[in-house]
Please model this.
Amino acid sequence: MKYLIGIDVGGTSIKNGLFTNDGELICKWEIPTRTENSGENILPDIAKAIDEKLAEKNIDKSEVIGCGLGVPGPVNEEGVVQRAVNLGWGYFPLAEKAGELFGIKAYGANDANVAALGEAWKGAAAGYANVVMVTLGTGIGGGIIVNGKILTGCRGAGGEIGHMHVRDGETKPCGCGNYGCIEQYASATGIARLARERLMENDDESLLRHVGSVSAKDVFDAIKQGDEVAVEVGQRFGDYLGKALANIACVVNPDAIVIGGGVSKAGPVIFDYVKEPFEKNVFHACRQVDFLLAKLDNDAGIYGCAKLALDKA
Amino acid sequence: MKYLIGIDVGGTSIKNGLFTNDGELICKWEIPTRTENSGENILPDIAKAIDEKLAEKNIDKSEVIGCGLGVPGPVNEEGVVQRAVNLGWGYFPLAEKAGELFGIKAYGANDANVAALGEAWKGAAAGYANVVMVTLGTGIGGGIIVNGKILTGCRGAGGEIGHMHVRDGETKPCGCGNYGCIEQYASATGIARLARERLMENDDESLLRHVGSVSAKDVFDAIKQGDEVAVEVGQRFGDYLGKALANIACVVNPDAIVIGGGVSKAGPVIFDYVKEPFEKNVFHACRQVDFLLAKLDNDAGIYGCAKLALDKA
Model:
């Protein structure tokens, strides 16, 4: 029996997972992320957490195949972080430094990319080799799996699909500074915005008029109750996202598209709005795709980090 | 010294190349493509051509590392053709059949994808690991290279970027049956169409009014002479293509974009129109990309086929 360690480093907390080499999660635990002083404590804190856990489980470091780390920012193939603002890190040779400090081979990747890898390994898309994962949360994260491996790109910004341009003439900037990114219309905040805009267009009665501040959840709850205005909002959301996914499919020809993040909690109803524009606009040879809801929730990252270590070790 | 063979199978002719294992082209030659009877003669004709060439050069088959074949249609990772209408082939286990017939290990891929691999190996993008190639001809072909390897996708339709959806409300169908594909605006025929549409908008004087039937070449020739209407056509072309390339860059984060095909003969002037909309719309972490003109012309395919054999053997 050999072991893998997956570490999902977030801006607030660090999720850690100890796995067997065939991907069974033995235990998981969290530690806080100390971002002060340019995040200088982050790796030492993780090293300590690993040492304690291995001691507790009576596992020697020689039995650990490797450790994968997911971080919020672009990370290249060599595990070098380009920048991770939420951790206080600038350019940082993560894999090298972590390997030295942990005494275990270490590998790094972007957090959205490892989440995709986790879902493709042990989650919704287990058994699929070519996977697009899109995480609809406050923003939109993405990860592309090609032949079972993360598509990292030249600077670790592969799968940044939240910033695909989908609307001309947008007057409000996206968080990234551009105008008209898919994140502005299909994230949780984007859907809420589409709803507010729709409500202002006329006086049509809607359940959405009776909630304080409309959220994406309100929209899908209202859709489930047959609210026509909410259905229109769902159609606009689906049109943006379905077309963007169709374009991604022309580029990478996936066999599965996984939708995760808070918005995906609405359930299969989101596919009612995404699939039709997808199928209408995608190239015929790329049309045959399974749409799946993410399964691993917040554990996708640690699973993907473990798989990263397994692949790279 | 070992050898590689690259075979670019087109609907009219088959281009063959004999290479050293480090990618030096020793000789190239063509044979006609006999598509009758569901293309049953194509592989036997190639087998004969290979045997004759190896005999002429005094090369034993044991000295040949492998043979790559590029075909016009989707080909999966295992070298199985899904369909190649121009060759008369339906579903066809190309790599397996070719290997048996040639007595040499054989591998198959899509022709646009091997052209991208050729340019990334020995052409414009030599030294770049993550490359997007777009071929602007009668239609638009594409190929994506990730970490030096073809992005094949689940059914061999990776890199079909000519059919990305870029315009809503299109009333004329694309060759693929969809409406609003980038091929309808940025291919040679697409540029000619944009020119015709522009000329009909008003009576502005233009050199383009004095050619019989406007071609993409006419447009770029007129641009070089300062023709304002042609410049507007160039801007519209660049806006479509630049935005599509920006979206591709968000997905695959390339370090180089290579533009080839007949339209690229216009030269660097095309970048004047493509780069600005690209840079304006691309995600900042994916912005740093070198734009390059294809170098290998019609030989890109045989180079890429040879590299395919080198990688897979």
Observations:
- Chain A has two domains: 3-121+298-312, 127-295.
- The CA atoms of residues 189 and 236 of chain A lie 14 Å apart.
- The first helix of chain A runs from residue 36 to 39.
- The mean pLDDT of chain A is 97.
